[in-house]
Amino acid sequence: MAACFSSPGIFSLPPIFVLSKISKLAQCLRACAMPQIEVKEIDLPILDNFGIDSSLTEKCKDILKDVEIAVCDSDILVKLHNFMPQLKWAHSTWAGIEGLLKAIPQEPPFTVTRHSGDSFTSLIAEYVVCHILNSERKSRLCWKSQESKVWLPNNVFSNHRSLNELSVGILGVGNMGSGIASFLKSRGTTVYGFARRPRAPGSQCYFDEIYTKLDDVLPKCDYLINVLPTTPLTSGLLNNSALEKCTKKPIFINIGRGSIISEAELLKALRNGWLAGAVLDVFEEEPLPETSELWDIPEVVITPHVSALSKPEHIAEEFFQNLTSYIDGHSLRNVVNWSAGY
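and the corresponding structure tokens:
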């Protein structure tokens, strides 16, 4: 990992440059910064919501050539990293980094960290618990009956399960998986994890068990949650031969990446009853095309990749926690590992 900046002393830190489309991010960073730290916002020529003008002004190029520390959106980093020869540390405002890895396939000479702090994982956990409770309490049925002005009898809702009666499997036991597990364990849920490699004793305090074989997790789950990133090892991991092992017919909640299962295999799993339903926030293709059959399946809930939107105050808090920790002599957290793919 590259050294993060030229001097570790707080009084001699270089300015923090902000290159982001997130509203009020620079303002939040200044509110969190110690008085000795300067936060500078670069006003980039925005063309649309997803890109920036490739023809940068000479003034902008002159500013970028001295940047050592940047808080930036991943798509902007992809376009501008070649204009920042002094860059030592880039903190991405996004949790997902597969676009960055694809655009910069070889590990760069600067360190990249990604947004994945406690506040972010809390948002993820809230999304998961919200949809579990909506499912158990039959919220969609209530909404439909309200539209029709129909008063449903009590016995329609009498078989719902509380969180402490459920078994939940989480694919991925890093920050996000552990954050979800912590939330669920506080309510008495039985939580199983899946990881590619064994975890050291004591590292699985939020999980009842962490397995390294998918077949050991799938039969135990009332709900199956994916938080895994896209890597060569995770793409297509949940194929039909795996989902046939889901003997409890769980509801699948995907907040990781759509590459974990193809749409065709997901549709087959739903139609065959291996999965009782799905809550999908991520997809193979985004936005989800109007032609997708997923739109028309009553057992599927679709949200437009909004399970945990990056909030400027959360990014600022996480960045300065990481910076302070580094100044105190600790390693940076949430460093992107190019060889691992996350």
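(Above: one complete record from the training split.) The chain is about 30% helix and 15% strand.
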